[in-house]
Design brief:
This protein has helices spanning 95-101, 117-128, 138-162, 166-180, 188-194, 199-209, 214-232, 237-243, 249-260, 264-279; strands at residues 2-6, 22-29, 38-45, 50-55, 58-63, 66-70, 76-79, 83-91, 110-112. With 280 residues, it is α+β, with helices and mostly antiparallel strands. The strands form two sheets. It has a six-stranded antiparallel beta sheet with strand order 1-2-8-3-6-9, covered by helices on one side. The protein has a three-stranded antiparallel beta sheet with strand order 5-4-7. Helix 2 (117-128) packs antiparallel against helix 3 (138-162) and helix 7 crosses helix 10 (264-279).
Length: 280
């Protein structure tokens, strides 16, 4: 489904170097088409974790969400799986020279982003203008909104280039949080949102740095803490299960045995025997 709003050029009173010609959204199966202008395309996702594009003979594999700059001279093909969600806006092709003069390079033409609340609000603001495009001042407001969106996108790329370990830092931050809060009940989607990452991007980068899934990693931290409590307290198995936010003592025992090869009480007896033998 394509929804596109055309900006009435004859309603502009104040002309800028970056006049938006149209904007909109698309949801459905992606298709290639020849462009006559400059398109800024935000792909929010499809059924895959990343997009596969061939741009001027070079292959790019970019996690969702990401942005792509499309120009008439671009030789582009892509592989899409399932329905794709896209936000886009267009400028006249000559605006590329303006952006490059501003220091906004078109190399690389595609890069991953975080679809932040700031971007969402800006697109919502643009959508709210769709029913009054012919009103005085609205085309100029549209230009201003999409200029702010462009700034967000290019600033994000600049931060990525300056900090090549940006995604690793986010993932390590998440791992530290899981480790330090392992005794609490953690809602992983809330943690991912607090990092400013999409679910797809989070899992894509997590797998680059950890062999365990986030759930397995958290469970391993809980078992480590359980060993400490078994070694250093006289808490019952049920008390330890409750302290570590397991759903039940039965599930705790099952997971402890899976990780250690013995039950919590078996582990405690083994530790006590070892401690007694050491003292004697």
């Amino acid at each position: 489904m394509l929804q596109e709003y055309i900006i009435p050029e004859n309603r502009r009173r104040y002309h800028t170097e970056l006049p938006v010609s149209s904007f909109g959204r698309f949801f459905g199966l992606g298709t290639s088409h020849k462009l006559q202008d400059l398109e800024v395309c935000l792909r929010l996702g499809d059924e895959r974790e990343y997009g596969v594009d061939r741009i001027n003979g070079k292959e790019y594999r970019t996690p969702f969400p990401h942005v792509m700059l499309k120009t008439p001279d671009l030789v582009h093909s892509f592989c899409s799986t399932g329905e794709r969600t896209v936000r886009f806006f267009h400028y006249p092709a000559t605006c590329r020279m303006v952006l490059e003069r501003y220091g906004m390079s078109f190399s690389p033409p595609i890069w991953p982003i975080v679809y932040t609340n700031t971007l969402r609000k800006l697109f919502d603001e643009a959508d709210s203008c769709a029913d009054c495009l012919h009103a005085a001042g609205v085309p100029e407001r549209i230009d201003a909104i999409f200029w702010r969106i462009l700034l967000e996108l290019f600033l994000f790329r600049e931060n990525m280039e300056r900090k090549p370990d940006f995604n690793e830092r986010k993932i390590r931050e998440a791992a530290s949080y899981l480790q330090s809060r392992c005794t609490e009940e953690i809602h992983l989607p809330d943690l991912i949102a607090s990092l400013g990452m999409s679910r797809r991007s989070f899992y894509f980068y997590w797998r680059k740095f950890y062999s365990q899934s986030p759930a397995q990693f958290l469970l391993a931290q809980k078992i480590r803490q359980a060993k400490f409590l078994l070694d250093n307290t006289d808490f019952s198995v049920s008390r330890i299960a409750e302290e570590l936010s397991f759903c039940s003592a039965i599930y705790f025992v099952r997971m402890f045995r899976k990780f250690t090869g013995t039950t919590p009480l078996g582990y405690r007896k083994r530790f006590s025997r070892g401690e007694t033998a050491e003292k004697s």
